[in-house]
Amino acid sequence: MLFYTLSLFGSHTILKRLNPVINFENMWIKGILIAICCSYLAPFLIKISISENYLDWFLIEDFSLAFERYVDRGWLIDYSRSFIDSTREFLNKYNDLLLLTALLIESLGIFLFLNWRYSIVIIGLFMIMNVNIYLLSAIFFWKWIISNFLIIVYLFHKKPELKLSPKYTLITIVSCVIFSYSMPFFPKLGWYSIPYSLDYRLDVLNEKGELKSIQGKDMAPFDMYFTFSRWDVFNQNQPDVSVLDSKQVKFSVH
Fold first, then answer.
1. For 232-241, how does the pLDDT look when each residue is reduced to its tens digit (9 = 90+)?
2. Where are the domains of the chain?
3. CA spacing 20 to 30 A to 160: which of 12, 61, 111, 142?
4. 64-73 pLDDT per residue, tens
């Protein structure tokens, strides 16, 4: 999102030099808000799409299990054991409420275009959510936080007029939904935590017909992306799945 912000800022600067008469600033800030909306709406929509009943992701996802996996991976090495245990207990107790809150916050992007005050509140909630994600998972969206902070400062200082007519508001929201879901550069952050996501092995055949065993650590640090994959390839190829124990599953892809 920092890249989108800098790109739009550069475009605004160039256009302003080419035609100083036209006020491109209002167009620029609306473009920024569209980028922010799509960046947070994309994770919301992907969670909806992977939910069997559209809105039950927060009831199925187990964040306390995800927290345990982050601890096992060593991503939260500075936390004491007592803090980890108390956090796990807290997440177990309020799992559904916390995930529902995060899901609702991600959906708030469509209200960014009402006025600058609402925009500041919503972007502030985005920042709070990003900070809490970092504290609980060590996944640090620092570029998003910096971009959001700078936009809040701009909105508070300039107080731009953002309100659109009902017609153009609807067009903007529909466009954001389409762009965020279909464009690959908006992050599709949505998955289900599973007990065996930490430990896995891939048995593959190379071009010589030799069977090779590949573990997650062999692909580090890119194994993180594989760990958080939605395993679409298995759904598409109708795998044979046999559960060996609570932490080990065997997949056969045809």
1. 444 444 444 4
2. 2-64+94-182, 201-252
3. 142
4. 888 887 787 6
